[in-house]
Amino acid sequence: MSISRRSRIALTALGICALALVGSIPMTLEDFYVPGTQVGDTNQNMIWSSQSCMNCHGTSNPGDPYATWRGSLMALAGRDPLFYAQMATANQDVEHVGNYCIRCHVPGAIMTGHALVSDGSTLDDYDRDGVSCHFCHSMVDPIFKPGISPPGDKSILAALTDVPTHYGNAAFVLDPSGERRGPRLDHQAMHSMTVSPFHTTGDFCGTCHDVGNLATTRQSNGTFRYNAIDARSPTTDPHQQFPLERTYTEWKLSAFANGGVDMGGRFGGTGPSVVSSCQDCHMPRVAGTACVFGPDRPDVSRHDFSGSSVGVLKMIALQSVGDPDVDPDAIAAAIEKSINMLQRAASVEVDQTGQTVRVRVINESGHKIPTGHIEGRRIWVNVKMFNAQNVVIREYGAYNDVTATLDEHSTEIYEMHVGLSDYASKMTGLPSGPTGHMALADTIEKDNRIPPRGFENAAFEAGGAPVVGHSYADGQYWDDSYFAVVAGAARAEVSVMYQNLPRDYIEHLRDGNHTNTQGMTLWTLWNATDRGAPITMASTKIQLVEALSGDVNGDDHVDGSDLAYLLSGWGTIDSPADLDGNRIVDGPDLAIVIAGWTG
Question: Quick check: bond before 451 cis, omega within 30?
């Protein structure tokens, strides 16, 4: 169906349900315009494929940039089946949004021009090089800093039609000549090279790791509204757009970005133990060489880019069997590093008071946990209680490996859910409330993810990363959850679990896709690997002591203080006063206190 620009704007202005009429919101490439380098500003003859870097930067030592990059999700972004399934359903909801998605995940398509076909059907081998070596090493800081930025950047920025004023939304700027850039003053490059301090900063990473929905704009009252169709966003500030990802902002507002945090070498690497930039964790330093021509260095930044996408890497490895451009050994190494990264990102403490075990999950990372693209990503607490015969007699947060499902109601799950307001519901014809239609979402229904050190509620809310449906005090970077000790329990094993490919989300992408086979491809790969099996981030054990039934506060009496504590928390979820383990303070808990009353 062809609809004129005037008719499209009228649909939005009148609040007519565009989805009901045409199957998706009829937006255009203009709606997803971002400043910076555009199609035609440079080409693939200037930004070479990563294979061209292999001969000099495949050094076969711990600092080998090519080998470590090759197994990363950066290198494999153009082959990510989860991305293609997500993009397919997003395009069904909003026409041409795929152009925006491609800009981050397959940036080579800006050089080839294939990004202009928003469903990804024209992407070629050059595009599938992912977030390539030369792409990153030709990036220019869009915000010129006198005395810091290379002097020549001023003319590059001046030549742009539209210079980015914020980091985020894939508003990248490339040196149109393909000049390589890096942070070393004493490089021995065989090609022309510009020294770029930008490449050592978190701002560099923020280019693609802060994402707002360009089709929405924040209103003065804090709500979001859809923009007029076939018109550029009235703002280029991601914080003024509905948050799709806020990893960069979460870091920027943390103690890590504001003075650094001494983590005692937790995230590995040689040199100082203070963590301040994204690179300090995701590109740990080792002794080695970055180029076969040297020099030897004590602090080469490994190009691991380890994150949390273990299941995605496994699916890519399976799908790419026989592909000469994909190295299964490099992927296997990247999977191990990603698991290791997850295990460094959190720690856990546990103790017992009366009939309750308190589990404290501590965020050791520089952003919320979990972070990133929020769909499907979750962390939860698993508690197994054993009797004296070493038999499990109660499990909270149980995961069924056979059905690939989680007992969600018995534990605390840290996650973010988006939704549709009544306004968005009227505009789209979809029901209000929590939604899987992320490209149309305009509300945050839940965000209890654990913030990083330095957290402040007001700053995070202003940055589009608020806490919703939970409570964290300023400065809090941990969360406590409570689990009732059942009769006969002698010990407990506590684990913090991570998952980013839960069954219901994969099924949503499969069943919601009616335009191509990407959803079914994802489902098939998911089933053929480990079906997004959860990964243990941290674990500990505790010996349990028999407690007086009904003793909420652990003082070995069941009296008025226990009753008062219970009544003050009546109806709350996840409380020490939950004595029967159903996760809510209610009548059965009161009955336990009354039955155990000692006065």
Answer: no
Q: Give dist(CA 81, CA 179) in Å, integer.
A: 32
Contact 157, 164 (CB under 8 A): no
Q: What is the pTM of this model?
A: 0.94
CA gap 382, 398 in Å, rounded: 6
Per-residue confidence band for 271, with pLDDT thresholds at 50, 70 and 90: confident
The rounded distance, in Å, linking the Cα atoms of 551 and 593 is 7
Angle between helices 503-511 and 81-93 (to 10 degrees): 50
Which pair of tokens denotes residue 322?
Answer: 């026989």
Q: pLDDT of 428-456, one tens digit each?
A: 999 999 999 999 999 999 999 999 999 99
Sign (positive or negative) of CA dihedral 426, 432, 434, 437: negative
User: CB-based contacts of 402: which residues, under 8 Å, 6+ apart?
Assistant: none
* H or E stretch covering 330: helix 328-344
Sign of CA dihedral 591, 592, 594, 595: positive
Name beta bridge partners: 378.
499
For strands 378-386 and 443-447, give the pairing: unpaired
Query: Per-domain residue ranges for the chain?
Result: 5-56+77-272, 344-543, 560-595
Residues in the chain: 599
Count of C-beta atoms within a 10 Å radius of residue 234? 10
| Cβ(165)–Cβ(108) below 8 Å | no
Distance between CA atoms of 109 and 296, rounded to whole angstroms? Answer: 35
Which of 134, 160, 171, 173 has the alpha carbon at shortest distance from 47? 134
Residues 234 and 208: beta-carbon distance below 8 Å: no
Closest CA to 366 of 262, 251, 210: 251
- Residue type at 44 in one-letter notation: Q
213 token code pair: 């929905």
pLDDT in tens, 291-338: 998 899 999 999 999 999 999 999 999 999 999 999 999 999 999 999
Q: How far is CA 351 from the centre of its chain?
A: 30
